What does this fold into?
Amino acid sequence: MMKKKLITTTTLSLFALAIMAQTGKYGKTPQDSIKCVEGLSLYKDFVGKDDKTALSYWRVPFSVCPLSSEKMYLDGITIYSSLASKEKDATVQQKLIDTLFMVYDKRIENFGKEGFVRGRKGVDLFKFKPKDLEAAFAELSKSIQLQSNKSEAAVIATYMQISAELEKAGKRTKELVVEDYGLVSEIADFNVANNEKNKDFYTKAQENIDAIAAPYLSCEVLSKSLADKYEANKENLNWLKKSESLLSRKSCTEAQPYFKIAESLYKLEPSAAAAASMAKMYVGQKQYSKANDFFKQAIEQEIDNNKKAEYTLYLAKVALINGQAETAKNYALKAAGLRSGWGEPYLIIGSAYASAAGSCAQNECEKGLIYIAAVEQFAKAKAVDASVAADANKEIAKYSKYYPTNKDCFFHGIQDGSSYKIGCWINETVTVKTQ
It folds into this structure.
């Protein structure tokens, strides 16, 4: 045992001498370097297994060579967080918590990444000091300001939660909560569309954000809030964009403030997004021909396929409103082709089929078979996109009760379980299912 310890110490000493060339990184003296390397090596074996022992070794490199390793700070945060969570003595726990946040600050001081680290710190502040909402909120606000679309999912979700709690405590206005919602929702949207690795985390974060903000986001509340601010901001492009996005997200495009905001936005910047805003405005005013023109302009100007898909699907919706079921299907298929894994186009196709049951069917049996084709589209929608499952299930329940009767199909020589090709513009082959 003594021999092994001697070899280990000798190895560490030689390593310490080798790294002394990196002045200051591993300590100021050869003795510091030996302590540093030994501590860095030893504490790692105990993290997550025996955090008290890990801490006793970890403190050495943290003190004598704070510039030696960024990973040391991550491990220190893990150790202190674990110990604080388990500690029963309130006084000891508070000391552990205070040291935890000191480690966060030292990490920023020595290794930068301020925006990222402050986000993590803000989340932990909310966890360990839930009564000190303003301190946690300040950290998260600064983090989001620095990180923007790189903000982590946990950061934006916690930010929204604290914003709502501050409002309930009378320390934040409802209008600011609405602004906070717009800010974090844009970040979530960006990452759902562009961050494939962490898409699921941002999707879940957006669900939580929507639930927290729901009491503040009725069209009535939003309309009043934005209408009051419109005159002062009608030439503020950033405000107009955020306000349009917020109203559009909450399906408030028929509200009066939306009309003014859309027009001002298009006047200042006639971009694809602004053209789409004008189109939505005209949909709200039931001026569908003008809406079509602006959606087509938006599609022509847009370079992002996800946005093109969104605008194309709006054309499908407008066509469906106008009773143009075949056109609606064609636009919906185009939209689906522009954006994979999206279920909403198939909801539109299903609705288009259902709306044509009366005009396309040659008899009562075929009418019921068209409803089967519609239900198959709703089933496809939820198969490719779980987020539309609730809407799809509602439509399936609505139309499956209109399946044909055995009597109606037997009369026309159509047997249960057989394949049947529906004509008209639908052109789908379905398996006959009778009631």
Q: What stands out?
A: The longest helix spans residues 90-111. The CA atoms of residues 108 and 114 lie 6 Å apart.
